[in-house]
């Protein structure tokens, strides 16, 4: 299907698709918070069993990544995995 | 898992999304998870948005290790989202879960063929829809909050004068203060929960579907107050502006809570999660 190739600059919203009237909405321009993004990228999205990521599918991925988040954002929280990012003196 | 047996060329195919056909030119200048430009792999009336990435960085063990690195995770999440969002601005697109990797483009094409019906159904359902996120936080600084630590500081002084004895009075005052703080916290939690229910009712009526995410940990979000409600709404594009306006209106009229609106998003929260006969699919809350 032929699609218009408007050279719109990359934006993090659907506003430029004409889906929104209020494209000047400051909320729509704000940088997306990582937690909001991960809510969607880790808990949403189609889960397919890829060729190389069998064991990472689903919950596993969420856990690995959240562990990264938690241990790096609260460096004083001890990590049972001995993550190098968590160094308790 | 050994890399050399799986990818003789040393590369693998990272898949961002499955979409309806779109001009490949929309991907011009877009940077993928490894810095390169993604391309399209077509199969009948579907395309997969794919990136050729080094196997060494994206096989299972590599991913496992790299996903533990927050900087890498953040960069990949943003790049993944950037690609999905770009494509979704031009055509209906189903985002795939982060880090879905195939041996090569032929395997991706086969996956499209195998799952064609499920993809088509899901794409049809989400065409012309957008997602809005709404979060409700307690507002610890709200003027309407019940007697809190501020009022009890005064209580501490009067306890001193009344009891005359240092430690006993101070101890009681401390306990009273803690109790008041706990009550205040419970009250604001309860208030925020009630308001969330109201908000969910009003906004849910404007939406086709909704999904409740787990409230975010304050340590992760860095946001003040406690997140008591974290929902996503699937809204038809032509009602999107109305939805956002209504959400803002609700947010302005409330005290004691803070309401945050994010979006519009590609409807991540509403794609069927697994294409299995008994798959959980999209839950209607």
Which keywords apply here?
heterodimer; A: mainly alpha; 33% helix; disordered N terminus; B: alpha+beta; 2 domains; globular
Describe what you observe in this structure.
The complex is a heterodimer of chains A (89) and B (285). By secondary structure, chain A is mainly alpha-helical. Chain A has helices at residues 26-29, 34-43, 59-73. The termini of chain A are far apart. The model of chain A is unreliable at 1-29 and 77-89 (pLDDT under 50). Chain B has helices spanning 3-6, 55-58, 60-66, 70-88, 105-114, 116-126, 149-163, 166-206, 218-221, 240-252, and strands at 11-19, 39-43, 46-54, 93-102, 129-138, 209-212, 227-236, 257-265. With 285 residues, chain B is an alpha+beta fold. Chain B has a four-stranded antiparallel beta sheet, with helices on both faces. Chain B has two domains: 3-127, no CATH class; 131-146 and 183-270, Alpha-Beta Plaits (2-Layer Sandwich), CATH 3.30.70. In chain B, a hairpin with a 2-residue loop joins strand 2 (39-43) and strand 3 (46-54). In chain B, helix 7 packs antiparallel against helix 8 (166-206). The chains are: A mainly alpha (89), B alpha+beta (285).
